[in-house]
Amino acid sequence: MNHLTPERRQRCERLIALYPQKRSALIPMCHIAQEQDGYLSEPAMIEIASMVGVTPAEVQGTATFYDMLHTEPVGTYVVGVCTNIACLLAGGDDLLAHAESSLGVRAGGTTDDGVFTLEETECLADCDVAPCVQVNHRFVRTTTPDALDGLLAELREGGRADEIPTHGNLIRVERTTGLVADPEAIAAERAAKREEAGA
Amino acid sequence: MSLTDAPQIVTARAGFDDSHSIDRFLATGGFDGLRKALTLSPTQVCEQVDAASLLGRGGAGFPAGRKWSMLRKADVSYLVINGDESEPATFKDHLLVEKEPHQLVEGVVIAAYALQVSQAFIFLRGEFALGLERVQTAVNDAYAAGALGQNIFGSGFSLDIVVHPGAGAYICGEETSLLESLEGKRGFPRIKPPFFPAAIGLYGEPTVVNNVETVSNLPWIVLNGGEAFAALGEGRSTGTRLFALSGHVRNPAVYELEMVKHTFRDLIFAPTLGGGIPSGTGVKAIIPGGVSAPWFYEEHLDLPLGQDEVAEAGSMLGSGSIVVMDETTCMVKAAWRITRFFSRESCGQCTPCREGSGWLERILFRLENGQGRREDLDLLLDLCDNIAPGLTWPPQQTTICVLGPSIPSSIHSSISRFRDEFLAHITQGRCPHA
């Protein structure tokens, strides 16, 4: 019994076909698994391992290196508040403290209802709108406590679903085509051309 | 707005609300650079880039033409675009991928043609969800327009581009670590030599890794000629460059400016640029090129924004991100926060970086919180010296990659310049700014 839905398995197969080596699809496939479960579950890691031809331990060992891949359940909305240098200068610490009190959890925690996980993040590359806040990796640009509270209330009521999909939905644009250039044929052709030019 | 009349080379469309759409792109000269490139031989395209003297815009500032020349003869090779923009306070590639995604794709196709590679990867940091969607859309559009895929615009040249999402790790901005990540592994940097990407890169094959901004310049360079690009700026710093300005300024933003022709003072204080410091106090410190760079101060304000000018003054222009800290800023807290970043992002392979960064972070934390000791200052510098012996600039290296030797920059800078402020934390038993 597969854990990933047939549609997602298909997307994974298409991803694998884009790379000269299967394992390259591992991280993009982890994102697809997070889209299904909201986090990177154990059965998903086992299935990814068998699809790319590595051990489940290798998938886990790779995934846990990366901040965006969560091997434990997280909230529907992962709220990241940046406190790195540019945001620190703009009061990122205070905004994070406010988010902690609004949500009633410390950074790293998830609310009891499972709606929000709060994270203190490193620089998210949006330093002109500081302090920077992301929800599910969308820049929401709520730089004040009031704006942040307003957004949290909206999300709690299911608002802004188009703009901010639930956690795990990262890239909603599908690639429209597989690989069309044949690297081996092209390499052979180019080698022949070079020989011709050299001769 | 640039204070000179230099053109906007990479942000010409960014002011339009629909700058990311294929319609806007095509209506504003989209693919003109690519069409022209395909009428030239690959060697001629390389010559234009050489003539432009285009320096890489990722951080190291290596000439793009020379990087390419290392690869031109190999059979199977890859082009990888580094869009893992994670150096704190750097947000220029963020703008390019969201606002100018088609220009990026066009630049990638030109670079791939010049290098005669048949597969390119655009690696974007995973946190750029919108950027990933827009670049994937731009790739789809390019296939549909015949600007990508088989027999591009009837030229006989074929190319595939794959958009690859990262998953959150600063270290993947380091090019060999990025390649490991692209191979589906932990982002552990590879040791150079032998793992210079041009020799042994992706899947062990010769690979060029170029930054997003670097290749975004290519459509303009091909269309207008390398010499027109080289006529902008001065010396080795040619063309324009994106400067990401943040911190204590009225107008934090990304500014495309002609290289060398503007000073730090222009960028920070000109009404059409940074607009000055909101608190009305002076500049206490500037981080001139990402948090890996040693700090500058008031006396550096009239230094031109040029690669060599900044290097000669003892720092680096790096990723082109400039953070302004005004007189109200606690230097201990700033140094601590930057060091904690490195400590969190150290990949853990090398002992000096892994252990050193954590140790440094904890000492700075206790100093900031009034628990420090007088001997801590020497201890900090001694630890820094173990990571980057001699505390020189550019730094010596005891680690596989340059993350480690970047750690001392903020600590060495802040202690050298603001020793009294550190001592005040110790004698008062608290942060004087808190």
Key phrases:
heterodimer, A: 199 residues, alpha+beta, Arc Repressor Mutant, subunit A, Glutaredoxin, 2 domains, four-stranded mixed sheet, B: 434 residues, alpha/beta, 3 domains, four-stranded parallel sheet, 18 helices
| Mean of pLDDT of chain B | 96
Measured between the Cα atoms of the first and last residue of chain A, the distance is 59 Å
Domain unit count of chain A: 2
Please identify, by name, the CATH architecture of the largest domain in chain A.
Answer: Orthogonal Bundle
Structure notes:
The complex is a heterodimer of chains A (199) and B (434). Chain A is an alpha+beta fold and 199 residues long. Chain A folds into two domains: 104 residues, Arc Repressor Mutant, subunit A (Orthogonal Bundle), CATH 1.10.10; 80 residues, Glutaredoxin (3-Layer(aba) Sandwich), CATH 3.40.30.10. Chain A contains eight helices and four strands; from the N terminus they run ααααβααβββαα. In chain A, a hairpin with a 2-residue loop joins strand 3 and strand 4. With 434 residues, chain B is of the alpha/beta class. Chain B has three domains: 209 residues, NADH-ubiquinone oxidoreductase 51kDa subunit (Rossmann fold), CATH 3.40.50; 94 residues, Ubiquitin-like (UB roll), CATH 3.10.20; 98 residues, NADH-ubiquinone oxidoreductase 51kDa subunit, iron-sulphur binding domain (de novo design (two linked rop proteins), Up-down Bundle). In chain B, the strands form three sheets. In chain B, strands 3-2-1-4 form a four-stranded parallel β-sheet, sandwiched between helices. Chain B has a four-stranded mixed β-sheet with strand order 8-7-10-9, with no helix packed on it. A two-stranded antiparallel ribbon of chain B has the order 5-6. Chain B is globular, with a radius of gyration of 22 Å. Chains A and B meet through helix 2, helix 4, helix 5, strand 4 and helix 8 of A and helix 7, strand 3, strand 7, strand 10 and helix 14 of B.
